[in-house]
Amino acid sequence: MNTKAGPVNIALKVLFTLMYGLPILRIVQTSFTSSADVFNAQSNLFFRPTLQAYVNNLDASLFIALRQSVIIATGTTVLVLLVAVPAAYGLARVRGHVATIGLGLLVVLQTLPQTAQIIPLFQILGMWGLLDTIVGVVLANAALLAPFATLLLRPFFRSVPIALEEAGAIDGAGMFRQFASIALPIARNGILTVSSITFLLAWGEFLYSVRFLLTPANRPLSVLLAMQVSAFGIDWPGLMALAVLTSLPILAVFLLTYRLLRDGLTVGAVK
């Protein structure tokens, strides 16, 4: 069986490498190309590298957008965990119709299109005076990602042996003590995995930022990248250089948490 699966695995790896690797390679190559050589077929392989696009992008607006992205992604991650961790623990410990209804509601919330939530959220944030604020975007992102994070976290808490909590109860530990001192430390890797995924998703979020942050100067990197395309043309080297620069922080987060993501995402497949 392994001899038959080997060529298939190799073919799939080559296919996915070409599908995802070639566009990334093209983005990096274009970022080091001058505008005159972008659409020159003879310069696709042999061109004179230049850092001009990177130099042009390293200005104050880039660092302001970077700061906004860091605040939004970090704030969203913290708020999502504050909601999703106790919710996932509760769903992991209840049985019967309550768990079924709770999981069904989370699935329904997860399937709601993000575009359908724009107008209601715009009205709510307007009534609360949170339009054009980072807090408003963080709240909207947290509402979007909390159901997803809860569904991901539940298998980690279900993997915690309930006998440990029963032993804690015999020793006098209350429900909160069982949760904080027994379940949380054992499910720590799962919480870190979900934190990484939430941070990655919040970092690239675009729709809420462009709708709820009305002042262009307050928008994060994802919006700054889209603003490079205008009706007057596209500076392709500048756009690709900005794409590379905005990807570096999230690439660092991914590399630092790769082992957690690889191991943690398989938990839900068997629980």
Structure explained in plain terms:
Belongs to the binding-protein-dependent transport system permease family. Residues 66-257 form the ABC transmembrane type-1 domain. 73% of the residues lie in helices and 1% in strands. It contains 13 helices and two strands; from the N terminus they run H-H-H-H-H-H-H-H-H-H-H-E-E-H-H. The protein has helices at 2-31, 52-57, 60-93, 97-111, 118-127, 134-158, 162-170, 175-186, 188-204, 207-212, 221-226, 236-256, 258-264, and strands at residues 229-230, 233-234. The protein is globular.
Protein topology:
Layout: H1 2-31, H2 52-57, H3 60-93, H4 97-111, H5 118-127, H6 134-158, H7 162-170, H8 175-186, H9 188-204, H10 207-212, H11 221-226, E1 229-230, E2 233-234, H12 236-256, H13 258-264
Antiparallel strand pairs: 1-2
Helix pairs in contact: 1-12, 3-6, 3-9, 4-6, 6-9, 7-8
